[in-house]
Write a structure and sequence with these properties.
By secondary structure, this protein is an alpha+beta fold. It has 44 helices and 44 strands. The strands form ten sheets. It has an eleven-stranded mixed β-sheet, with helices on both faces. The chain is elongated.
Length: 1420
């Protein structure tokens, strides 16, 4: 098969002009990045100054102000003019206007001539200015966010920043008033704070704990009593400077890149949410610099001197190098990415954090990964330039012909006494000069070939289309009362031509909310009862008693009284009971059958499984339990929403995790009168390679000190580590079937298992594990090997099923987008397993899809390099595509002949993977989905040939999922497809990490969700839900593109008809550029006679109703394929206009020329037949515009006939104006015009003859060659309430069409464009899928495996928090070796892993079983 050709742009003047970016001219050139030294409480060194008082440029840092607007007051006029004069037509109009300032070419007043151009430029400038003022307002809202900053005690930040830009918000009083009030409020707060009156009204309450009065935990901390003392003062984000010391509180967004000094948490750890940066939903842990951890009060911060040496600002999100230099000896302490909070992150699960600003504004990493606000132009506008250029060439030809013929005629008649040559023998007058003058006059006469009113008409229509989008209630989110907003008004028609969509995941496709839905325990599935929200009764906690939990069960289990909380959120207890905790308003897991089985309704063996299952959920995690000091509610602070959902589910059932104190875990069960306690011995952390997490705990009960291993992880990892028994195999088989059921519903699954470990076995293993943790070489490998030793012979408990809640309607929306032939690429910062799981649940990866996985591989590792993985993927799955035959996908020194021989040899040599891959792999009906991680993308973008190979491979797949990608990589992916294929792209996201991708795409869509306004501020359209994207594209995009395309070609058509009539007259006026019409008719042509119908087409034309367009997404292909506006369509309309003008002119001209129209026999005056021509021309173009309109609404009727009525009225009134008022050339013309039969019959006959060819062509196409739109229009015509979705004729027709397209699209596309996929039915909120029908091939290993059963688990790998836990446990193990064993604390309850089961059986009257032995029975 022929190699798909990548579109290569020609390097000529026209393409360079089109691609020239105006923003490069006005962008302030950033200086080269330089390392910096930040001084705290120290003066800048002498080398920072060029002379006293003047700081060197390299010591001046960026302000923290971030501006996404395009214009300032200074740059608005020049930049906007440059943008507008990128239109060839505007340059032409300016030239014509300037030409008419010379007397030889003047027609009317030069001021009136240039007025239309000024109006066009002014209207466009007002529109652009309004759009940019809205951006300024959004920027101002972000830059005027507030934060606490150190002040007082004479503290001065010596570091210098550059000047700030100004956010202009003038001209809109409501908004201005809001902002003014906001700014004034900040000023008032600061003034009152300085006077010591009170804290600002928006201060969040501090936690009531015992601490020094000058620490942030003190409730009176923000009450300033002495302004001279160091204190925290409110400041705006844009006023934050490099070197400032700031205080963040819980849930505060981070305003700049900040070095951590100290935090409220144990070990000075801070937890942050990074989904704005990388899309990951799990929390990350960061820690303070040890040398700065003692700086916890304003006084200490204002007195301690040190400096920070940092590398130059770099865009890499995961690298940060620097050092803190303290003391006279210059002791250095390292600064890395684990000690810094980046702008865009949010402080979570941490009451407060103090830090120092390292990089601000444009130097922060999130801004470095974002691009400048681009000046986008629609595809229709870009296609108009060649069409305008063609018309300019046509105009030039007409002018040259007139000039040459006029010069020849004058030369011939100059010496022959021709009457028109009278007086031409004057000095300086000769035929050649007159020919040049005729050329200029011809440009003026025929200038309407390029209509100046076209551009202002387009601007007006697009403005109205933006209003239509705003007022569309179907894409108005009622929950938050948020409309869909068009922030850029000139891209509405681009919405109808999208071929590729690039989407973020977190917050865009998902809600970032995990909900425990189902579970399988002991082979029995519990699906949960339907949730019914019940009102909650108010609760008054007892003094000193913590009774409430955010994640408590539907039952009301008793809890321990007299609890207290330490810094980590742990609790200590006594053996007494207190009031039951109240229910949380959040979604809960409630199952009446489960409660019945748990309380004795099932067999003892199954009850033990239930007890063990939920005890494992409540203990196997790294969750922190904290208590609100005011309400007493227990809240769970988890590093991932997965863990929070699991612990919440356990609490729902009654197994409430009450916190930990150091290594003591406390668990409340539904059956005991006291809290169970477990000692945490080891945490075997989750990693992507292990796919499991385990904890080793020791029971602290009287007579029972057994040790348990509790494990949760992927089904295949757990199953292969189960103890091989008959009962275990049966349970594994049944649980596997349940997992398949869960996965088919798009749920994320985990398996739970446990085992009892002997004391001697654990002691020996713990020694080996400790040795592995302190190994200097291959530490990670040794830890994994030792961990694997203990995680064997497990007992299976069951499986969980969690729903990663999607945005409403996401699966249906993606299914419809695929039906429309749009390819969807997802770019996310999540890990690979999460990306695949979301791909399945969103219907992006279909049940029978084949997943190709490419993992990061360095070019140095030839076997696993990214390039070789892609080559092998093409060989295996696309052997006949011809991709590898192109030299563009190979290194420069690659020889094609040797490659072919190598490929053939690879096919002959058995590799041993065929049995794993399967014979039919790559031939499954679902197509291919490419999954590639960020490291592989990094290597792929290094070379041009790897980029080309990635492009060719990705465009042959049905979808592409990019995981672990940075914001900059998202933009590179969009640019690769947009520039490589020349296709229309749309990017959609909701966070700051999506800004660069949104700016790089042709159309950027921001979701106004919960992640701030960064994405919305940078977007062209703002929607509230992902599902609204389908209506935005299928309805508004389709309508706008069809309307605008039809309006533009009709605009060109109506003007070429008028100009061609003038042109034909040149044959009879010696090519002198004389107007055949009276000049005012031509002057008002684009204003009154012919403007209304084309405006009506742009506003009201509707060839199909919105419900039909939504019911059949396949119709979007008409816009995606560019059928409504192309050079071919333009040429047809232009030729039709020339033909109609010839019929009108010659029919009327020769009618008047043969016999006199007057009854007295005198010859006709020129304006008699010319007026008949102009009226006939106006009637023809208006009716033809109406003929080209699909929906004749009342407004269309009005617009079609208003021009006809106006020209008839003008023809009747204008000739009656007496010369006493002003002189006209047609005075009295109505006396000869209206009585003449030629006038009436000439207009009627010319109209019929001119319109007949187009009418016949449209009727023939509609009757004999109808397309899908024609068929649906006819069905809707005869039955306006027709149900199209269930009409077998329509469905069968579309299926037949899709089968043809599917047969074509099964072969690789010639240019990589998206092709229409087979239509698939989709019922319900999530796709029903059987993971066993698809395949998944990892190109890094060459192995194939069936699609996973939905396993996914998000947790920070190797984070500082888990490392500190491991360190504590290791130190505790070491102390046990060196110190004698402590005496066990006596407890009241007997032995058994699940001793609370005794209480259950006593309540049910059953005979209690003996204590569970060291090795529980199978299936327990």
């Amino acid at each position: 098969m022929a190699q798909p050709v990548r579109r290569q742009k020609r390097n000529n003047f026209f393409t360079r002009l089109v691609d020239w970016r105006i923003e490069d001219v006005f962008r302030r050139k950033r200086p080269p990045p330089r390392p910096r030294t930040i001084y705290i409480n120290e003066d800048l060194p002498p080398e920072a100054f060029t002379k006293p008082g003047k700081v060197k440029k390299e010591w001046i840092y960026s302000t923290n102000q971030v501006v996404t607007s395009k214009y300032t007051v200074i740059t608005f006029v020049p930049r906007n003019l440059l943008e507008q004069f990128r239109r060839i037509a505007n340059i032409f109009f300016a030239g014509i206007a300037i030409l008419q300032f010379f007397p030889a070419f003047s027609t009317i007043s030069p001021g009136l001539v240039i007025l239309p151009l000024l109006v066009v430029i002014l209207v466009s400038a007002i529109k652009d200015g309004y759009e940019d003022i809205k951006r300024h307002q959004s920027d101002r809202a972000i830059n005027h966010s507030k934060i606490w900053r150190l002040d007082g005690a004479g503290w001065v930040n010596p570091n210098v920043i550059g000047p700030k830009a100004r956010s202009y918000t003038f001209g809109f009083k409501p908004t201005i008033g809001a902002h003014t009030h906001h700014v004034q409020e900040v000023a008032d707060d600061e003034e009152k704070g300085e006077k010591g009156e009170r804290a600002p009204p928006d201060v969040m309450p501090a936690a009531a704990v015992h601490s020094p009065s000058d620490q942030p935990d003190d409730p009176h901390f923000f009450k300033l009593t002495n302004p001279a003392k160091a204190h925290w003062k409110r400041a705006l984000w844009e006023d934050v400077r490099v070197g400032d010391i700031v205080l963040l509180q819980a849930d505060d967004p981070v305003p700049a890149d900040i070095l951590i000094c100290s935090t409220s948490e144990e070990e000075n750890i801070a937890f942050i949410e990074t989904k704005n940066l990388d899309g990951e939903t799990n929390l990350k842990s960061r820690h303070a610099i040890p040398s700065l951890s003692g700086l916890r009060t304003p006084h200490d911060l204002a007195c301690t001197k040190f400096r920070i040496e940092m590398e130059a600002p770099m865009p890499s999100m995961y690298q940060m190098n620097g050092a803190v230099v303290m003391g006279q000896d210059g002791d250095k302490y390292p600064v890395d990415a684990q000690t810094v909070l980046l702008r865009g992150t949010v402080l979570r699960n941490t009451r407060w954090c103090i830090g120092i600003v390292l990089f601000s504004g444009e130097d922060s990493k999130i801004v470095l990964n974002s691009g400048q606000t681009p000046s986008k132009r629609s595809k229709v506008e870009r296609l108009m330039n060649p069409q305008v250029f063609i018309n300019l060439i046509l105009l030039a030809v007409m002018a040259v012909v007139c000039a040459i013929v006029d010069a020849i005629i004058e030369t011939r008649g100059h010496n022959q006494g021709a009457p028109w040559e009278f007086g031409t023998d004057r000095k300086g007058d000769n035929p050649r000069i007159n020919g040049a003058i005729t050329f200029g006059n011809a440009l003026i006469t025929f200038q309407n070939v390029v209509p100046i009113s076209l551009y202002i008409s387009i601007e007006f229509v697009r403005t109205c289309q933006a209003a239509f989008i705003y007022f569309d209630k179907d894409i108005w989110y009622e929950k938050t009362n948020t409309p869909t907003l068009a922030r850029s008004w000139n891209l509405s028609d681009d919405l109808g031509q999208i071929e590729y969509i690039f989407s973020d995941k977190t917050g865009t496709l998902t809600q970032n909310a995990m909900v425990f839905r189902q579970c399988s325990i002991g082979g029995k599935v519990y699906r949960g009862d339907e949730q019914v929200d019940e009102p909650e009764a108010p609760i008054v906690p007892e003094p000193g008693v913590e009774v409430d939990s955010d994640v408590t069960a539907s039952a009301s289990p008793p809890v321990a009284a007299k609890t207290s909380q330490d810094e980590s959120g742990s609790s200590s207890s006594t053996d007494t009971r207190s009031a039951a905790p109240r229910l949380s308003p959040h979604i809960r897991f409630v199952d009446s059958a489960l409660q019945a089985d748990l309380h004795g309704g099932a067999s003892p063996e199954h009850s033990r499984s239930l007890n063990g299952f939920f005890a494992t959920l409540a203990l196997c995690h790294t969750v922190i339990a904290s208590t609100d000091p005011e309400t007493g509610m227990i809240t769970y602070k988890a590093q991932s929403p997965d863990e929070a959902a699991l612990v919440q589910a356990a609490a729902d059932v009654g197994f409430i995790f009450r916190g930990r104190e150091r290594e003591i875990l406390r668990l409340q069960t539904p059956f005991l009168d006291h809290l169970e306690e477990y000692e945490l011995l080891n945490v075997l952390d989750f990693t992507s390679s292990r796919k499991r997490m385990s904890v080793v705990v020791k029971k602290l009960e009287e007579g029972d000190s057994r040790i348990f291993l509790l494990t949760k992880g992927a089904d295949n990892v757990i199953f292969e580590r189960l103890k091989p028994t008959t009962a275990s195999e049966q349970l594994k088989t049944k649980t596997g079937e349940d997992l398949d059921l869960f996965a088919s519903e798009g749920l994320r699954t985990l398996c739970l298992a446990y085992k009892v470990i002997g004391e001697d076995e654990y002691t020996a293993w713990a020694d080996r594990y400790h040795e592995a943790t302190v190994a200097l070489e291959d530490r990670d490998e040794k830890i994994a090997a030792v961990s694997d030793e203990i995680e064997q012979n497990l007992r299976l408990l069951g499986a969980t099923a969690i729903e990663d809640k999607l945005q409403d309607g996401v699966p249906e929306a993606i299914a419809d987008l695929k039906r429309a032939g749009i390819k969807v690429w997802v770019a996310t910062g999540d890990k690979l397993e999460t990306a695949i799981a979301i791909g399945h649940s969103t219907n992006l990866i279909e049940p029978d899809s084949n997943v190709i996985i490419i993992r990061g591989g360095s070019p140095d590792d030839e076997a696993k390099s990214t390039y070789n993985q892609m080559v092998h993927a093409v060989e295996r799955f696309f052997p006949e595509s011809g991709i590898l035959d192109s030299p563009w996908v190979h290194p420069p020194n690659h020889e094609a002949t040797s490659y072919h021989s190598e490929r053939n040899s690879l096919r002959r040599v058995p590799t041993g993977t065929s049995s794993l891959v399967g014979e039919n792999n790559g031939e499954r009906p679902g197509g291919f989905v490419l999954v590639i991680d960020g490291l592989a993308l990094e290597y792929a973008f290094e070379e041009e040939y790897t980029k080309e190979l990635l492009l060719q491979l990705g465009t042959r797949c049905e979808a592409v999922v990019c995981c672990r990608v940075s914001p900059k990589q998202k933009a590179l992916i969009v640019s690769l497809v947009k520039d490589g294929l020349g296709v229309m792209t749309l990017a959609i996201g909701d966070g700051a990490n999506d800004v660069s991708m949104i700016q790089a795409a042709d159309v950027g869509v921001g979701i106004s969700g919960e992640e701030g306004l960064q994405a919305v501020n940078a977007s062209d359209y703002a929607i509230a839900q992902f599902r609204f994207l389908t209506r935005l594209l299928f309805v508004h995009g389709h309508w706008s593109y069809q309307r605008n395309g039809n309006m533009i070609v009709n605009f060109f058509y109506k003007n070429i008809v008028c100009i061609s009539v003038l042109w034909w007259f040149q044959i009879y006026c010696a090519w002198s550029t004389t107007y055949v019409f009276e000049y005012t008719y031509l002057l008002f042509w684009n204003v009154f006679w012919s403007l209304a119908p084309v405006i009506a087409i742009g506003l009201f034309d509707r060839h199909l109703d919105d419900d039909v367009l939504m019911a059949f997404p396949e119709l979007y292909a008409y816009g995606r394929e560019g059928r409504y506006f192309s050079l071919k369509r333009f040429s047809i309309y232009m030729l039709d206009g020339v033909m109609q003008s010839a019929l009108i002119f010659f029919l009327i001209y020769y009618t008047y020329d043969t016999t006199s129209a007057r009854h007295d026999g005198w010859g006709s005056f020129q304006y008699e037949f010319a007026t008949t021509m102009v009226v006939a021309t106006a009637v023809v173009v208006n009716l033809c515009n109406g003929l080209n309109t699909s929906a004749w609404t009342g407004w269309v009727w009005f617009s079609v006939f208003i021009g006809i009525i106006l020209i008839w009225g003008y023809t009747a009134i204008y000739p009656t104006i007496a010369p006493g008022w002003f002189s006209t050339n047609v005075y009295g013309n109505e006396r000869y015009l209206f009585p003449s039969a030629y006038f009436w019959f000439g207009i009627i006959l010319a109209t019929l003859v001119a319109l007949l060819p187009r009418y016949i062509a449209k009727a023939y196409k509609f009757i004999y060659m109808p397309d899908d739109v024609d068929i649906l229009r006819w069905l809707q015509k005869i039955d306006p309430k027709h149900n199209f979705k269930h009409d077998p004729r329509v469905v069968d027709h579309l299926k037949h069409r899709e089968n043809i397209v599917s047969a074509v699209s099964s072969r690789p596309s010639e240019d990589g464009r998206a092709s229409l996929p087979p239509r698939r039915s989709f019922q319900g909120g999530r796709p029903s899928m059987d993971p066993r029908t698809g395949s998944q091939t990892d190109m890094a290993t060459g192995l194939r495996a069936a699609s996973s059963r939905g396993f996914d688990f998000s947790q920070e790998e190797g984070g500082y928090a888990i490392r500190r836990v491991q360190t504590h446990l290791s130190e505790r193990h070491q102390s046990r070796i060196s110190l004698p064993a402590e005496t066990e604390t006596k407890r009241r309850i007997g032995s058994g892993f699940f001793p609370s089961l005794r209480k259950t059986m006593k309540r049910s009257g059953a005979t209690p079983d003996p204590p569970v032995p060291k090795n529980p029975p199978s299936g327990s």
